[in-house]
Structures are given as C-alpha cells and as structure tokens.
Design a protein that fits this description.
Elements lengths: L2 E6 L5 H10 L3 E4 H8 L5 H10 L12 H8 L3 H29 L5 E4 L3 H5 L6 E6 L2 H12 L3 H9 L4 H7 L2 E4 L4 H16 L3
Parallel strand pairs: 1-3, 1-4, 2-3, 4-5
Organism: Microbacterium bovistercoris
Enzyme class: transferase
Protein name: Dephospho-CoA kinase
Length: about 200
C-alpha cells in the first residue's frame, strides 16, 4: 500500500505521468481538485478567505473569484502566506481522508498524490516515494505558450514564482524526464511503476 507523491513545476508533464500511473491501476488523488473542493461556496475555507481578503474575492453567486484572489496574492509573499495558512490545513485533512478511503477500499492500492506544491507544503509527510516530473524551463515556457495560451512573459513569471527545479530534484526518489517523446515519458513511468508496485 505505497503512498506516492507526484510533483513537478507548471507544464512539467505531471498530468501525463498521473494518467499513465492511473492506467496501471493507481488511485490518483489530485491536490488541485481538493483545493477547489474545499473552497466551494458556503465552505468554511471560503468564508475564511473572504474574511481575510474581503468580499471582493467572491462572485455574485457566492463562489470564489479565482482571478481576483490570484491577482491579490501574486507577488505578495505575506498575503500568499496568509492564504496558505487558510487553505493548506484543510487540503491536508481532506487529502488524508481520501488516502484513508482508498486504502480502506483496497489495502493493496497504490495511491498517488498529484501535488504541485510538495516542496512548499508537504515534503515532510511520510511518502513511500516522491516522483518528480522534470523538463527544462525553456520547454515548459514553450508548452505554456503553445498549449495554454500564455504570453511568454506570463509563462516565465509563473515558472519563476515556483520553487526551483533543483529543489524538486533534491527530494526526488524518482525523476521522470518529460522532455522527450510521449512514448519515452511513458516508458519511464512504466519502469517507475514496477519499482513502486514492489513496495506494496
């Protein structure tokens, strides 16, 4: 019943790796989805965000205005720290609940936590393996421009706002280089699966 953290910078190929692990039978828990789930309209987390940053963070239907919140905290380390202090504990509790549910349903499950902010928030959790998706920054800029429609300046700013690739590689048990072909990436994931599945 290994518990695996999968992380990587923006546009590093994390989703491709997660999808391949799911094909092998892994239960993938998506941190970004949990963030959205704990911030739904009427949730304690959303109420706390509005109390901290103002009702301007809410849309007319009571849901979170992600663009407004992003603009409010981007580049403001103190504001981001306050936001993380609200969101991270709730995400940690909900992810633990989902891990436990997966292992309760299948004690032999391989659970993969797809988590962008591992280095920043969850590196000391008791992971059996940490897998890092890795690709050169220039390639990731190109992916953000071509696949997500960002300007080059915006793409570089997003990458620069995250921890360094070196910091991610330093905590990795397995590094998957996604700079080659899709098939090459999948082959690396298949080898990683053989390794982590042995732990179960």
């Amino acid at each position: 019943m290994p518990l695996i953290a999968l992380t990587g910078g923006i546009a590093s190929g994390k989703s491709t790796i997660a999808a391949r692990l799911a094909e092998h039978g892994a239960v993938v828990v998506d941190a970004d989805q949990i963030v959205r789930d704990v911030q739904t309209a009427g949730s304690p987390v959303l109420a706390a965000i509005a109390a901290e940053f103002g009702d301007g963070m809410l849309l007319t239907d009571g849901s979170l205005d992600r663009a407004a919140l992003g603009t409010r905290v981007f580049g403001d380390d103190a504001a981001l720290a306050r936001l993380n202090g609200i969101v991270h504990p709730a995400v940690k509790a909900e992810s633990a609940r989902r891990f436990a549910a997966a292992f309760a349903a299948d004690p032999d499950a391989v659970v993969v936590y797809d988590v962008p902010l591992l280095v920043e928030a969850r590196v000391d959790d008791p992971w059996d393996f940490i897998i890092v998706a890795d690709a050169p920054a220039e390639l990731r800029v190109r992916r953000l421009v071509e696949l997500r429609g960002l300007t080059e300046e915006a793409a570089r700013a997003r990458i620069a706002s995250q921890v360094s690739d070196a910091a991610r590689r330093a905590i990795a048990d397995i590094v998957i280089d996604t700079s080659g072909t899709l098939e090459q990436t999948k082959q690396q994931v298949d080898l990683a699966w053989e390794r982590v599945a042995l732990v179960g």
